[in-house]
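hi! just following up on the protien thing from before. the input was this:
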Amino acid sequence: MDLKSLMQLRPFDWRWFIASYCFLILFHLLPSFLVTGSKSAFIEPFSFLSWLGGGSLIVCAVIGIWSKGVTILEPGLATVLYAFTIVGGLKPQWLFGRDFRATAWQIVLLLAMFVIGCIGAAFGEWLQHRK
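and the predicted 3d structure came back as:
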């Protein structure tokens, strides 16, 4: 697979977007809440960000392995929606403030989650083509 064929525009596959979001909920969020039982583990910024980023990276890599063809954008966008869902549902105090800094952190978090999701999916695609 050369770089030119990888960079060609292709239609957005909604099935993998929905599957990625559902897998993130089912295999990342649900087990986390079953283990912790409360929101207390997500109060500190470092533990919250490492939990969110690490789990999303693994789930997106699995999506990249399972999908046929190149599926990188769909898990990345599903990860943004997932992060938006998590931040809206948990409302960590360090991320919600009344100043510009809190809004900037939210934007940085969503952009970072997009990059993490795309990196995980690209790693999964690499493993898929390596077989």
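The helical segments are 3-6, 14-36, 45-66, 73-90, 100-130.
The chain has a mean pLDDT of 81.
cheers
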